[in-house]
UniProtKB/TrEMBL annotation, chain B:
Keyword field contains Cell inner membrane: no
Family: Belongs to the transketolase family.
Gene: dxs_1
Entries under Pfam families matching the protein: Transket_pyr, Transketolase_C
Gene3D superfamilies listed in its UniProt record: 3.40.50.920, 3.40.50.970
Keyword Plastid: no
Protein name in the entry: 1-deoxy-D-xylulose-5-phosphate synthase
Domain Transketolase-like pyrimidine-binding: 4-169
Enzyme class: transferase
Keywords from the UniProt entry: Thiamine pyrophosphate, Transferase
InterPro entries: PDH/Transketolase, THDP-binding, Transketo_C/PFOR_II, Transketolase-like_Pyr-bd, Transketolase_BS, Transketolase_C
Enzyme Commission number(s) from the entry: 2.2.1.7
Source species of the chain: Neomoorella thermoacetica (Clostridium thermoaceticum)
Length: 263, 311
């Protein structure tokens, strides 16, 4: 809980310092990322290329701040580096760049790619006889990209039980409510129809997240998707459920107000 | 004359490569019988992934395999590899410099009867424009075989452009292909033809014909379009007149690449033989090559026009 709060504070601070970025969809994924990076994933910050590590793919690449905060808090790099977000020469690019920053597995930013890339990693793990697990975080608006469903089809076809997708189902995208812009619903039924094991949870409840992630590793013969019901902008009262905070940085006084709420 | 399709040579080279290197994996998008990856699939079923009719998934999955230490060869028709999956190639493979080899078959007008929708005439332009991408257009079967091995040994994204029909053999096993190195097939002082792919054979024929007319013309096989062999271009420029020849639009392809070097380093008269900002149509490959100005005769005419201007 304390870690999640620190990550929320990091997100608000770094996006505020950058003057641009995506706070809303970063804050909605904080508990998911905290669970993965602090409880579930097998990794070693000293060895970001350790072959046995679990892999994480941030398919919704604009949520880079939550990934950077999780990596920093987990010890991949110094937390004070977060303040260089989006600055010229910084390894903390506007969207994750694996060449710049250790711990970033896949360069993302163009939506819809992550699941298929994760499929490739899962196939490679199987070929090499390694037991690492691949996690991919998708946005619900991102599900509008047809390529997601190409990936969903392939993951089931190849029985990738070493892969778990998590949908950050916060119901908002840039132009408004996901259901109004272009509804991907019913998301659970769609994944089920593609041959996936499907779980739906409260994406801000650690107990449910950890339980779902544990159960996902026990599913055999098919991939698992965890649909995490979340609130965009979670934790900052004036950002919660506001599409406007998808890609807008808080002004200094708003940063102060948010940090006070997250104290 | 012995002929072999570059896609056929590719398929056979993959098997040879697969035997030597267990990290090689091959992906296809339901075209393995046409791209010839079926040979690899037959011998190494566990290392072959058919992604179905889903080129975006094909490229991104190849990226995931490349990020995990594999050497993926992702194959489909050139028009889909570069057009349908452009974003996946750009953002998923080239930007992060993932070790993926894109082997695109059925490029250019020589696809033939399938017509414009299947004739990639702008794929080299698209791939050449992407940072980090290496672009290779082999001229024949042997060069294709060696290019496949060179691509596997090279760390980073590579685009290999291959064709559908059988093309004349130019090289034997003594040839040594190197990425980024052009090969001079014929020396000459009066003009130079820089060609790639199927047009290399046409260039050689053109040079024979020009020799009969008293012109000694250099013929250069520029099989790597990027990085371009600048030294070879400058050597060609030393003849005083350069003609480029490609089975591709003249906008942004080999001709443009050569023009970029000439214009900035050694301006000499230049003519480009290639497709003139148009889509193709259905027809037999040789009929299309003739109609769209891609024959030895067109190269001869271009050289003569240039010489006329120069003298």
């Amino acid at each position: 809980m304390a870690t999640a709060r620190r990550i929320r504070r990091d997100i608000v601070r770094m996006v505020g310092a950058a003057g641009s970025g995506h706070p809303g969809g970063s804050l909605s994924a904080v508990e998911i990322m905290t669970a993965l990076y602090f409880k579930v994933m097998r990794l070693d910050p000293e060895r970001p290329d350790w072959p046995e590590r679990d892999r994480f793919v941030l398919s919704k690449g604009h949520a880079a701040p939550v990934l950077y905060a999780a990596l920093a808090e987990r010890g991949f790099f110094a937390v004070d580096k977060l303040d260089t977000l989006r600055r010229l020469g910084s390894p903390l690019q506007g969207h994750p760049d694996r060449k710049s920053l250790p711990g970033v597995e896949v360069s993302t930013g163009s939506l819809g790619h992550g699941l298929a890339v994760a499929n490739g990693m899962a196939l490679a793990g199987r070929l090499d006889g390694r037991d690492y697990h691949v996690y991919v975080l998708l946005g619900d608006g991102e599900l509008e990209e047809g390529m997601v469903w190409e990936g969903a089809m392939a993951a089931a076809h190849y029985h990738l039980d070493n892969l778990t997708a998590i949908v950050d189902h916060n119901h908002l995208q840039i132009d408004g409510r996901v259901e109004e812009v272009m509804s991907p619903e019913p998301v659970a039924d769609k994944f089920r129809a593609f041959g996936w094991e499907v779980m739906t949870i409260d994406g801000h409840d650690f107990g449910q997240i950890l339980d779902a992630l544990e159960r996902a590793r026990e599913v055999k013969g098919k991939p698992t998707v965890i649909i995490a019901e979340t609130i965009k902008g979670k934790g900052v009262s004036f950002m919660e459920n506001q599409a406007g905070w998808h890609g807008k940085a808080p002004k200094p006084e708003e940063v102060e107000k948010a940090l006070a709420e997250l104290a | 004359m012995t002929k072999i399709a570059t896609r056929e040579a590719y398929g056979k080279a993959l098997v040879e490569l697969g035997r030597q290197n267990s990290q090689v994996v091959v992906l296809d998008a339901d075209l393995s019988k046409s791209t010839m990856t079926r040979y690899f699939a037959q011998e190494f079923p566990e290392r072959f992934f058919n992604m179905g009719i889903a080129e975006q998934s094909l490229m991104a999955t190849a990226a995931g395999l490349g990020l995990s230490g594999k050497i993926p060869f992702a194959s489909t028709f050139a028009v889909f590899a570069t057009g349908r999956a452009y974003d996946q190639v750009r953002n998923g493979i080239a930007y992060p410099k993932v070790n993926v080899k894109i082997a695109a078959t059925h490029a250019g007008l020589t696809v033939g009867e399938d017509g414009a929708s299947h004739q990639a005439v702008e794929d080299v332009t698209l791939m050449r424009a992407i940072p980090n991408m290496t672009v290779i257009v082999p001229a024949d079967g042997e060069e294709t075989r060696q290019a496949v091995f060179a691509a596997a040994a090279y760390q980073g994204p590579v685009y290999i452009r291959l064709g559908r029909p059988a093309v004349p053999v130019i090289y034997n096993e003594d040839y040594r292909f190197q990425i980024g190195r052009a090969h001079t097939l014929r020396r000459g002082k009066d003009a130079a033809i820089i060609a790639c792919g199927v047009m290399v054979h046409e260039a050689l024929r053109a040079a024979e014909e020009l020799a009969a007319a008293g012109l000694e013309v250099m013929v250069v096989n520029m099989s790597t379009i990027k990085p371009l062999d600048r030294e070879a271009v400058l050597a060609a420029a030393a003849t005083g007149a350069v003609v480029t020849a490609e089975e591709h639009t003249v906008i942004g392809g080999l001709g443009s690449a050569v023009a970029e070097v000439l214009a900035t380093e050694r301006p000499v008269p230049l003519a480009m033989v290639g497709i003139r900002d148009t889509f193709g149509e259905s027809g037999k490959p040789d009929e299309l090559m003739a109609k769209y100005g891609l024959t030895a005769r067109d190269i001869v005419a271009a050289v003569k026009r240039l010489k006329g201007k120069k003298d």
